[in-house]
Design a protein that fits this description.
The complex is a heterodimer of chains A (about 425) and B (about 425). Chain A is α+β, with helices and mostly antiparallel strands and about 425 residues long. Helices cover about 50% and strands about 20% of the residues of chain A. Chain B is elongated. Classes of the chains: A alpha+beta (about 425), B alpha+beta (about 425).
Chain lengths: ~425, ~425
Amino acid sequence: MMLRNHLTLAWRVLWRRPFFTATSLFGISFTLVVLMVAVALLDHIFAPMAPEVRQDRTLGIFRARFVGEHSLWNSAAGYRMLDRYARNLPGVERLGIVSVPAEVHSYTSGRRIESFLRRADADYWRILDFDFLEGGPFTDQDVAGGSAVAVISAATRERFFGNASAMGRTITADGQSFRVIGVVSNVPATRPVASGDIFVPLTTAKTDAYRQELLGDFFGLLLARSSSEFPAIKAELESRLKSVEMPDREYDRFEAPAETYFESVAGQQFGTKEDVRGHPERLWAAMALVGCLFLLLPTVNLVNLNVSRIMERASEIGVRKSFGASSWTLVGQFVVENVCLTLVGGMIGFALSGAVLYAISAAEIIPYAQLRLNLRVFLYGFGLSVLFGLISGVYPAWRMSRLHPVAALRGAAR
Amino acid sequence: MIRHLLRLAWNRKRANLLIALEILLSLIVLAGVATLAVFYVDNYRRPIGFEVEHIWTIAIEMHADRANSSITVQTGQGDPAAPQTPVDRGYREQRALIAQLLLALRDMPEVEAAAAAFITPYSGNTWNSDIEIKGKTYRYGGNEATDDFARVMGIEVLRGRWFDREDDGAAWSPVVVNDRLAREIFPDKDPIGEFIDEQRPAGQQGPRMRVVGVIREFRKDGEYASPENFLFTRSRLDDPSLEAQPPRELVVRVRPGTTAAFEEKAVGRLRAAAPDWTFQTEQLAQSRETAHRLWLAPLAAAGIVSGFLLVMVAMGLTGVLWLHVTQRTREIGLRRAKGATVADIRRQLVGEVAVLTAIACLAGAAIIAQLPLLEVFPAVRPAVYGVSLAISFACIFALTLTCAWMPARVASSVEPAEALRYE
C-alpha cells in the first residue's frame, strides 16, 4: 500500500518538470549504455557460448613458462608438455590439443586471402560442439596419418569458393594444400579456443620440431567429468610438472597451470614471477574499480539534480513532516522514487545498448562477433540500475529528511 | 568583486561543493582525453626516422625453435643479444639460409635492396635493454640488423656510418645509436668511436660495444609512439659463432610501380628456397594503417564516452543552476528593487559559477600535477600535461559559463515587483 503510494507519487513527480526528468533519464540511460556494452563485451569473451558448450567442466592449459632466479620464459605450452604430462589426468575424460591461431596467406587468382590457421587433434572436435554446415571433423586416423584435410569456417568458404559448396575441394594455405572435409559456422575472434578460419590435423605441420617442445604454441583443453574435479586435476598436473627436466641451469621450475580462461587472463594481468596464478578475484576487483570510477561523474551529476529537486519540494516535505511523517518514511519515499527513475532510465538504456551492440556487430569491429543482449546481461544491467539508483538517491534523501519542518514550510531551504 | 563572489559562494557551500565536485570530475575526464590527444599530436609531428612507401616486410616462422617473436623473454640483466638458452639449435644453418633468401630476393627485377633484422616497424615486437655507464643507467630499445637495412628503410645517418664490411674484422661489436641516445650518453662529446659498455653486466660475453654511427631516429612503433632511445647492433649472416640467433624479419625495397602481384612471386621464391618455413608478407604502408587504427581506437572510444559525459554534465548543470536561481527569486528581486541593473544580476550569477569553476580547476590542476611529479607515465613529457590542462581549462569554462548563461537570463528578466511579492 505504502509502496503503491510511493510509486504513484513518483510517477506524478516525474511529469511535473519534464526537462529535469529528461536530463536525469539521459544521464542514467547513457551511463547504463556504457556499462552494459562493457558487460556484453566481457560476457562475449568469457561466458560459455557455442561451440564452447562444455566450458563449465573444461579447464585449459593456456600458458607455460620456465622460471629461474633471473630469467623468465613465457609462452604457450608445447606439444611434448601436453602429450607427456597432461594425458590421463585423473577425473579428466579427454585432452584436446589445438594450436594458437597463426596467420597464413593464400594466393588464388592473383588475390591474397588471409586466414587464421589452427592445428588440432581429433579430441578437440569432441570437446567443442561446432555447428557443421557441411561434412564433419577430421578423425583420429586423419591425425595419426597426417592427412592433408581441413575444416574451414563459413567465412573462409565464401572467400575461397563464393557461395558454392566447399566439400572435396582443395585450398592452399601457407604453401600447403588441404582437401576440405567440413565447414563450420563462424566463431568470433574473441573466443580463445574456438575461433579460426582453417583447422587442420596437427600432424600436418611443416616439420616435426613441435613434438620436442615443452614451450610452444598449443593450448590444452581438459574436459573434466565435472567441475568438482578441478582442484584435483590442477594439483595432479602441478605435481607431475615437478619432474620436468630444465633445458638450462638458468631455470629451476616449469609451470603450466590448468585453469579456466578467466583465471588465465587474471594470471596474465596479475600473476608474478613467484606466483603464476593471477587470483581471479583481483581481476573482478579491478573491473569493479574501473566501473566505479566511471560511475563517479554520473552519480555526482544525478545527486546534484536530485538535491536541487528536493529543495524545490521543500514545502511538500514540510507539510508531510508537520503531519507526522517520520524521517525514515521520507527517506524511503525518496529512494523509491529515485530507483523508479533509474529503472525507467535502465530500460531506455537497455534498448539503446541493444542498438549500440547491433551497430558494433554490423561494423564488424570484432570479426564474426554477433553481440546481443541476453538474459545474463539484462540481469547485470538491472542490478547496475538498482545500485546506481540507491547510490544516487541516498545522500539527497538524507538531506531531505533533515530539513526542519518550519524552515521547509517557509521554503527557505539552503 | 571577487571577494564578494567568494562570500556568496561560501554562503551556499553545501550545494556549491557538489557542483564544484561535478565540475572537478568533468575536468579530470576532459584532461585525460586531452592529454592522450596532445600526446599523440606531439609525437606525430616528430620524424619517425624511416620511410614507409615501397617497402615490404616478410616475417619468418621457422618451426624450429621457440625463441621467436611471440615469446617475451626477460633476462634479469643486460645483453639482449645473448641467446636465451645456450642450446645450439642450428642457428648457423638458419643464418646461411637467410642469406640465401636475401640473394633470391635481390635477384628479382622489382627489388632494389633487401635486408634482415630482428624487429621491423609497426610489428609490435619489442626488445628493451639497458646499459650502465659511470653509475648511470640508460634504457633503450634495441634491434639487430644487416648492412643493407639502412638503405632499405631510408634511415638518415647523421654522423659516422651505418654497418658495412669494414666492421668484419673488428675486435669490438659495432653499434649505431639514435641521436637521442647519443646526446644522452655523450652530451658534449663526439660519440663516434666511443665504447659505451664499460660496466659489463656479470656473465655477459662477447666484445664491447663501440659506436660507429648516429642516426636521426628509428621509432619502430611509428608516429603515435613516444620517441625513445634506440640502439642497433650488427647482424652478420656469415657470423662464425654458434650462438648468434638469426634475424627473423626481412625488409625489401621495391622499385616504384611494383604491383601487389610481386608478393606471390616473392613468396614463391622464398618457399622454394626454404620449404619448411612460413612467410608472412605485408606492405609497410599497410602495417602502418593497421597500427594507426590500434593507436587511435582508445582515443576514439574515450572521446565518444567523454563527449556524452560532458553533454550529460552540461544538461545537469543547467538544470541545477536553474533551480538555484528560481530559489533565489526574492534575493534577486530585492537587488533589482535596490537599483541593480539586469546586467549586474547576470554578471553576479555567471560570476558565481566562474568562481566555482576556478576552484574546481585549481583542485584539478593539483591532482593532475601529480602525474608528471610522480612520473606515472614516463613517456609523457610534462609540457604535454601543461598544454592539455590549458585546453581542458578553456573547455570547462566554456561549458560551465554556457550552462550558467540561460538561468542567469531567466533570473534577470524577473520584474522586481513580481519577485518581491514572494516575500
